[in-house]
Each structure stands twice: as C-alpha cells, then as structure tokens.
Amino acid sequence: MELHYDNPAMISGTVDSSGMRMYYTSTAREYDAGILTFGHDITPDQIIPPNAKSFTTTAILTGECTEAILPEDGIRVFGNFLHTHVVGHGLTVQHFRKNPECDVYEELEPIDRNLQYDFNYQQITHLKREVVIKPGDVVQLKCFYGTEGVDGVTLGGLSTRNEMCFTFLVYYPAVDFQIAISRIESSALRDYLKSLPSGDQIVNGTEIDYSKLNTVDWDVDKFQETVDESMQGAFCRGEGNAIYRVTKFPEIGCPYIAPDQCTTEATEATEGGVVLRASVALLLLLSLLAATLG
To answer: Which of 218, 247, 213 is nearest to 233 (CA)?
Structure first.
C-alpha cells in the first residue's frame, strides 16, 4: 500500500483518516492474480508543451518483452487502472498482434479506454471481457493531455503538478512480470531541442537545462511529430530477465475499426420490432380463424 500526500500550501492540523479493508480465505483460489505496471518512464524527458489543446504521450510494451516473459498461453487481463495527473483528459490501452496478412501487426480491440478521464475520479475498471495477451503481442498506452491556459511546460514527475502516463493491468495467472516502461531516446530529444532557436542555451553537451524550456516558442504539432517518430527506449523486467530495446512504435497494417454502436442497436431494435409485428399478425390471424370456425 502506498499513500501520496500533496500539501503545497503547508496547511497544518489536517488528519488523514483513510484506510483499507483486507479479506482472506483459508481456501486458495486456482490462480494467483498479478498487476503489471506499464507506462512512460517517470522523467522530465516527458515534456508536454503549454497551450496545447491536445498532446499525446505514448508508452510501448514490446513484443520482445512479452515473448521472453509471458507463458505460452499468455495472461488474461480482467481489470485495469488508468492514471495520469491533472492535465490528462484521456487514455487508451492499445493491443497489437502479429498477422502476416496485415504487414506484421493487426490492431485488436483496445484493452481499456477512457476519453473522459478525470483525475479526481480514478478507479479500477473491471473489463467486460477478459483480454488474452500472448507472447509476441505489443501493447501501447496513449495518454492525452490538454494544457490550454497552462503557464510553462509540464514535465513528467511524481508531483501532482508534474505528469504521469501509467496503467496497471490486473491479470492471471500471476508471473514474474514486474514493470514495463519506455521513453523517447535521450539523443533524439536533445537533437530536437538543439534545433530550436534557443537550443544552445537548453542543451549543454548531454545535459538538458529543463528550466530553460519555458523560453521556447513551442510548435506543438512539430514536437508531437518528433516524439511519435523518434526512437524509443523500452525496458521491462521479469522472470530473471531485464530487457532493453531501442525501437520505434509499430506500424499497423490492419487498424481496429470499432463497430457502429448506434447502427448495431438500431438493427437489434428493428429486428425485435419485426419479430413483434410478426407475432401480433399471427395472433390476429389465429383470432380470425377462431372466430370463423366458431
């Protein structure tokens, strides 16, 4: 259990009365469940420009990680906990699987998705259907931020005034899969910052002066393109393995197309109406026959 406290005004005399209730059973369940922590590395290299209507941070769980750590039958995800801080307004957990007909990867139905995320109402979501993640599958987490009216850049960090991009997949059977994180390669970020008019002041050798980022006249679209297309450093740990890969986000040959819920519901309603009208017509016919025979 981990509690975080944020008291920037240094208010005294506040008492925390929160707690938790735990249950136990003498009968062991068939499977142990596990929680996989997955997201963007907690680092100021996660840069979210100011005055952005929407800016996306993406984290990747590589196929090399799932291939090396997951059991042959995969794991079954039944719950999930999405997490950003206050400028986050949406998250989606994407699921990709190799398919030769799709030029390597097919995008499956999202594992979880909340485009109306509110930091003040966080909860574990119990999925409608269990999702099987197999060895070789790729998982991506996209976090969407809005910084209109925010003064200065927002950097990744532990404070509520910083940002995070994480999800916690609840699954079974439990395996030794502890964490998976990724971030833009430092050299790619430095190269972009150096290309800016004030780049020489921001980057000194391999060091970035994050305090100077507020002097930048940010081109949000250009920076988004740089982050999305640059090499990513992806790390995972489990089953005695620590795997680091420099990779790019996968190109998807067959994107997922969500079913049209309105059309589906309308079709079901229409089909139901047809059945109802047929039943009424049959009853009327039987009534007429009964009256005639009577």
So the answer is: 247
